[in-house]
């Protein structure tokens, strides 16, 4: 792998020669950036050994200096989290104790070698993924043959398939084998580039949730949607007071990402002006570009060789539009409600508290909501324990709610998906209003 420089708790390391259990994708997330929050959130249940391992790879600050490194820190400065306070907090201690106790029981029950193994997908979860995958590929055949019924069904079945494995795999929480986590998302590459997802979601969003400057999700379409009170207002935002307009914009996410936007991001070198785009080698960069072109062809080109123009246009666009809509509706409710966006303006110095305040869960006890959203309904739990498979979060949720109540950390939740959706659209209407100070100016 060669040199791979990162910064953790103010110290610099070159971990290019380290054989990480999460494989090269986990290490690449830390390349040329401050990876303190990534390190702590993914090693929270077993941090002593990784900390000891890091000492073997420490380098002097002068050795870490090179053009192109630590660009986010140069632009935004150090993050606002107090890691001494965070690591010593009773809130974090109780959360880690809760998760450790549960996973130890899971480890004993299933005869697993470690807590890390116990945190991955259990057999039941693999069965669910397998059944959903079989359904997707069964519908894919008549879709390619031109069935209108399959055209309507494919995006729905595809969403259920992708959301129940893709997210966990790219959080290193699906399999004990890192190559499975790395390669399985390419079974369904039509959702988003896995490389872009790691940058936007894992490196950016999960560390700086709802930060108006550093969360790339907040800056996804700043001229069309205002998703934070800290973002500048423009007249176009006034139109987001209509839910239909918001839904139309949501439907374009996947289509735009797979056709044009990923290439614009690659050219700019930043994901939504929030996260520097980093490729370890020229070969990785070229593979990424080639892969995006192949995906675009597999989505938008092939129908025009098989069907009349209007039918080809429908088969080239409708699946992406529907998949985008499902993704947005099931995910945006997790952070775009009034308490969450307000929390993003002044994040807590305690990283764990910050994650809870900027997220919300919904229908936590519903298995249907769990399957339909792939566990996204357990968003608070996921942000606290990102490397733990969602199948376990379903069982950890009740105690996590109790811990939040014990420490006075507001656990925002909604009893149903419908209630969360109403709160989300109310928030978008609120954000679409012209701020008083702007109107006065």
Key terms:
4% strand; 7 strands; 3-stranded antiparallel β-sheet; two-stranded antiparallel sheet; globular; mainly alpha; 441 residues
Protein architecture, described:
This protein has 441 residues and is mainly alpha-helical. It has a domain at 5-54 and 65-78. It has 25 helices and seven strands. The strands form three sheets. Strands 1-2-3 form a three-stranded antiparallel beta sheet. α7 (90-110) packs antiparallel against α23 and α15 packs antiparallel against α16 (282-300). The longest helix has 24 residues, at 309-332. It is globular and about 65 Å long. The termini are far apart. The mean pLDDT is 92.
Query: What portion of the residues fall into strands of 2 or more residues?
Result: under 5%
Count of extended strands: 7
User: What is the average per-residue confidence, as pLDDT, rounded to a whole number?
Assistant: 92
Spatial separation of the terminal alpha carbons = 54 Å
- What does the overall shape look like? globular
> Class by helix and strand content?
mainly alpha
Helix content: 55-70%
Counted by DSSP, the helix tally is 25
Poorly predicted ranges: none
Largest β sheet strand count, sense and barrel closure: 3 strands, antiparallel
């Amino acid at each position: 792998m060669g040199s791979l420089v990162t910064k953790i708790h103010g110290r610099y390391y070159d971990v290019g020669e380290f054989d990480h259990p999460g494989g090269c994708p986990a290490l690449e997330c830390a390349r040329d950036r401050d990876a303190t929050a990534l390190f702590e959130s993914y090693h929270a249940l077993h941090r002593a050994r990784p900390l000891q391992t890091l000492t073997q790879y420490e380098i002097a600050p002068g050795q870490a200096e090179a053009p192109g490194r630590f660009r986010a820190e140069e632009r935004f400065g150090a993050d606002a989290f107090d890691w001494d306070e965070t690591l010593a907090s009773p809130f974090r201690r109780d959360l880690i104790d809760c998760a450790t106790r549960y996973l130890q029981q899971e480890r004993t029950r299933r005869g697993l070698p470690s807590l890390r193994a116990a945190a991955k997908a259990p057999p039941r979860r693999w069965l669910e993924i397998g059944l959903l995958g079989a359904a997707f590929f069964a519908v894919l055949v008549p879709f390619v043959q031109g069935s209108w019924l399959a055209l309507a069904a494919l995006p729905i079945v595809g969403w259920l398939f992708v959301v129940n494995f893709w997210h966990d795999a790219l959080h290193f929480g699906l399999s004990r084998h890192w190559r499975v986590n790395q390669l399985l998302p390419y079974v369904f590459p039509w959702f988003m580039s896995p490389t872009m997802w790691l940058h936007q979601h894992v490196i950016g969003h999960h560390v700086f949730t709802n930060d108006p400057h550093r969360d790339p999700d907040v800056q996804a379409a700043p001229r069309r949607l205002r998703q934070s009170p800290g973002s500048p207002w423009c007249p176009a935002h006034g139109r987001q007071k209509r839910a239909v307009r918001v839904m139309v914009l949501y439907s374009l996410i996947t289509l735009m990402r797979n056709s044009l936007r990923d290439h614009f991001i690659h050219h700019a070198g930043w994901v939504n002006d929030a996260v520097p785009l980093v490729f370890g080698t020229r070969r990785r960069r070229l593979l990424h570009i080639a892969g995006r072109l192949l995906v675009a062809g597999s989505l938008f080109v092939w129908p025009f060789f098989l069907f009349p123009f209007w039918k080809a246009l429908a088969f080239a666009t409708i699946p992406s539009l529907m998949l985008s809509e499902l993704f947005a509706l099931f995910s945006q409710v997790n952070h775009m409600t009034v308490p969450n966006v307000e929390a993003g303006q002044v994040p807590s110095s305690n990283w764990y508290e910050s994650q809870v305040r900027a997220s919300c869960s919904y229908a936590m006890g519903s298995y249907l909501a769990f399957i339909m959203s792939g566990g996204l309904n357990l968003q608070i739990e996921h942000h606290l324990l990102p490397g733990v498979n969602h199948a376990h979060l379903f069982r950890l949720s009740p105690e996590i709610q109790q811990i939040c109540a014990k420490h006075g950390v507001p656990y925002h939740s909604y009893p149903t998906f419908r209630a969360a959706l109403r709160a989300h659209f109310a928030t978008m209407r609120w954000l679409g209003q012209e701020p008083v100070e702007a109107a006065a100016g």
